[in-house]
Amino acid sequence: MQQIPKQKGFTIVELLIVVVVIAILAAITIVSYNGITERARLSNAKSFAAQLLRRDITAASGYWNFNECTGGTIANTGGNAPATTNTVLGTVNYSVDTPNGTGCSLNLNNNSFITNIALSNTYYMKSAWIKTSTTTPAMNIMSDATTANTAFYLNNAKLSAGHNSSWLLLQGTANLNDGKWHFVAVEFTQNGNGTTGTMVMTVDGTVVNTDANIPIMSNAANSFQQIGAFNSAVYFTGLMDDVMVVIK
């Protein structure tokens, strides 16, 4: 009678080795994918920021790249900058950590500066690179210096914007206090009816929220902008770079 040969199976050790190898390969794949995704996000943000700068630098009432890197004077190099200078509140601190790897950024921590630029109820645009890991509930990027009119800020880490004392006319969904550079912008354009406008919010070059029925500003002439705070309070903590404001 012919004997059937026994089939040799995998040992527990061999199975464990296979599982470990698969886990290592999966981890490498995930890390690689996350790296590719992050590079793509940053590349898209840089491309959008560059396009916005090319489009608006000539008409910008304010543009600050903070490349002085030292001293207490912050230059406004916008093509339509007012003759009046910025009012710096607190000590000016710089960082060599920037989204593009050159120049300097502004290191904000209970300090800010007033731009002497008021917004318009016809058109305004605010943009900036920001980087923070702070969990403070509210931190202002660029909001009113004296009146409770406009705000562009992080509300529980989510980008938020509004005017007429309505601070959450638009809000993003992503948490931006992840310790990474993000390019953020909000743009308001008055509609043809003269009473409402369209507000668009972007993060890293992607539109995250929009509303075509936003009331126009009621007190635009007094909405002087303060970078890094709201009415010299509710400060932004972190880094900021390439801040721009355009009014028409």
Order of helices and strands: HEEEEEEEEEEEEEEEE
**CATH structural architecture:** Sandwich
What number is the mean pLDDT? Answer: 89
Q: How many extended strands?
A: 16
- Based on secondary structure, the structural category is alpha+beta
Q: What is the overall shape?
A: elongated
Write down the domain tally. Answer: 1
Strand fraction band? 35-45%
What is the CATH third-level topology name?
A: Jelly Rolls
Largest sheet: 8 strands, antiparallel
Q: Which residues sit in consecutive blocks of at least 5 with pLDDT less than 50?
A: none
Explain this structure:
There is one protein chain. With 248 residues, the protein is of the alpha+beta class. 18% of the residues lie in helices and 37% in strands. It is built from 1 helix and 16 strands. It has one helix at residues 12-56, and strands spanning 62-64, 87-89, 94-95, 105-108, 112-118, 123-131, 138-140, 142-144, 151-155, 158-163, 166-171, 182-190, 196-203, 206-215, 224-227, 238-247. Strands 1, 3, 4, 6, 12, 13, 14 and 16 form an 8-stranded antiparallel β-sheet that branches. A hairpin with a 2-residue loop joins strand 13 (196-203) and strand 14 (206-215). The longest helix is centred in the N-terminal third of the chain and has 45 residues, at 12-56. It is elongated and about 80 Å long. The model has no long low-confidence stretch (mean pLDDT 89).
